[in-house]
Design a protein that fits this description.
- This protein has 328 residues and is mostly helical.
- It has 3 domains: 48-83, no CATH class; 93-139 and 199-326, no CATH class; 145-196, no CATH class.
- Helix content is 65%, strand content 3%.
- The chain has helices at residues 3-29, 71-83, 88-98, 102-108, 118-135, 166-174, 183-194, 198-227, 235-262, 267-291, 295-326; strands at 146-150, 153-157.
- A two-stranded antiparallel sheet has the order 1-2.
- Strand 1 and strand 2 form a beta hairpin.
- Helix 5 (118-135) packs parallel to helix 9.
């Protein structure tokens, strides 16, 4: 190669080397992005994911710097969860009591995380309601069932007053003349129900009533499906509406039972009419808010829903009482 060619090659190599050195110096000047390391990293105690804040982005559990070592810390955490202004519990209960139809609208429009799930809310309030009914003093005044005779007919009144002895109970039960497949068991348990085991029957009925009410909701949702055909709505929307409104019933009736059972004797005549007026107004307002139809049409459909409630509720109550007698 000639001298000019060698000189040109040497200059090109020098230029490439200079460019490489400049790029290397620029790369060294830019700090490398931090890489997560398992050494000293804070991980979620529940799922093991790396934490980037106070709550885990994977499972949602809150991170505590110090485990619960003493009673004061435990109580503080509990009070914070219950009294925090953004607590789902209080938001849900206040909306349920004083804002008819609001929770159903929020759920249908996708705003769900700030409130308790509907089915969980219903189940918890139903359990608390039947617990209150079983423990409050006025619930203890529910007496054993009695048989009322009207002409040649005998009617079993589940929560009447009075009692009969065992011999008379057997005589009365024999007059029902039940000859079905469970006749022997029914006659034996009927005598128990009328004589000595009033508490057993009452507790059995209260226990089974919660299940019966849960079965009532899908049937009422079918009725609402017929009442609200236009515009077309999904069956689950009606079921959600009933779940929220029955949760409201459990809550307000539980408060009423506590107030009348533990409060002064003169409180019940005042609260009783106010309670039922509020329930009617609440259901009417919730129908208006959720289904957004005229006030007269809504009132008509509320009346039809009430009739369906009475018919289906009576059938389920009778079936629940029969089942309670058979399972004593």
């Amino acid at each position: 190669m000639s001298a000019p060619g060698q000189a040109e090659s040497a200059s090109r190599a020098a230029a490439v080397a200079a460019a490489t050195a400049a790029a290397a110096s620029e790369a060294a000047a830019v700090p490398a992005a931090p890489q997560p390391s398992s050494i000293g990293a804070v991980r979620c105690a529940n799922c093991g994911a790396l934490l980037g804040g106070k709550y885990c982005s994977e499972c949602g559990q809150r991170h505590h710097d110090v485990p619960v070592h003493h009673f004061g810390h435990f109580v503080g955490e509990a009070l914070e969860d219950l009294s925090h202004a953004d607590s789902r519990l209080w938001q849900t209960l206040l909306a349920l009591l004083f804002r008819p139809g609001f929770l159903t609208r929020e759920f249908l429009e996708g705003r769900r995380v700030r409130y308790l799930p509907p089915v969980r809310l219903y189940l918890v309030l139903s359990v608390l309601f039947f617990l209150v009914v079983a423990l409050t003093p006025q619930a203890a005044t529910i007496q054993r069932p009695v048989v009322v005779q009207k002409g040649s007919e005998l009617t079993l009144t589940p929560f009447g007053v009075g009692a009969v002895d065992v011999a008379r109970a057997r005589e009365i039960c024999a007059r029902f003349d039940y000859t079905g497949p469970l006749a022997q068991r029914f006659n034996a348990n009927c005598a128990k129900a009328l004589s000595a085991n009033r508490e057993d029957l009452r507790n059995s009925f209260l226990h089974n009533a919660g299940r019966a009410l849960f079965l009532l909701l899908p049937l009422l949702a079918l009725v609402m499906k017929l009442l609200y055909r236009r515009p077309l709505r999904h069956y689950v929307e009606h079921l959600l509406f009933l779940v929220h409104n029955h949760a409201f019933l459990f809550l307000v009736l539980g408060i009423y039972a506590l107030a009348t059972g533990l409060g002064p004797a003169g409180l019940r005549p005042i609260l009783h009419p106010a309670l039922w007026i509020y329930i009617w107004v609440y259901f009417y307002a919730s129908l208006l808010r959720v289904y957004r139809q005229g006030w007269l049409l809504t009132a008509t459909k509320l009346g039809a829903l009430f009739c369906a409630y009475v018919v289906l509720g009576s059938l389920l109550a009778a079936a629940t009482m029969l089942y309670s007698v058979l399972t004593l």
